[in-house]
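Sorry to interrupt, but I need a hand with the structure work. Could you add the entry underneath, on a fresh line?
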Amino acid sequence: MSAGLNTAASRESPSTVTLIGLGPMGEAMTRALVAAGHHVTVWNRTASRAEGVVADGATLAPDPSTALRASSLLILSLTDYRAMYAILGDIADELEGRTIVNLSSESPANTREAAAWAAEHGARLVVGGVMAAAPMIGTPAASVYYSGDQDAFESSRRLLATIGEPHYLGTDPGLAQLMYLAHLEVFLTGLSALLHATALLGSAGLTASAVMPGLLETLVGIGEVVVEGHEPWVQIDSGQYPGDLSTTTMMGASADHVVRASQDAGVDLTLPRAIQEHYRRAISHGHGKDNWTSLIEGLRRPTSPS
């Protein structure tokens, strides 16, 4: 079911929800919830940030305690979990019986500790990793990975679908964070690679305007190239890495050339050397004739031969 359909469904049964944290993401979530017919109470450390969403129909609470009492469902959109403790720590005795949906970024380990902290105070924690930028919230393009207390998630699913398509991963609170961070790793690495390539070409006098559109086409097309001819996840899950389309030796040579070109150009070597090391490790572990997917063995066990 698309986020749009879920939003329509949630209009049929308006409910109350409290949202704390009105950065760009929190504002977008509040507007989506209000538009879907939910009664939204908000609180933000800087009260002036609430003016826009209040004009749209949200209610501003004067303090966290008042915001908390407005609903049994609390959504947090904060910088990290330290902010949650800073805001809720002094009123933790008021968490009894409430569901906390924390959409802030944190490490999986700290997230699991937070779930235990919430349980100590009689609350249930649902963890979310939002896979969308603020302008996408409330549209079919938005999705959110969730994990943690399953009953709490299911009872809140229809309301949460207003924010984005919900995907529940399991009861381990750290799973949603791990999934979010894994996607973010691919995203951040892609951006760094894009900028490194632009800097490399810039060393030869080519402008970013001239080269970045083409580099972006390569970045966008990676998925199609990777999947064409084989499904890499099948190889990884089976532990079989046939090198009929490419080999780590062949691709490792290309990685060596990128390092040399970067060195000659005086461009930062951190990223290309990291990639080079992945291929060198795979080759040294006997995967020289295998597909690039065999690099997963060295990534899983970086200090031992696979």
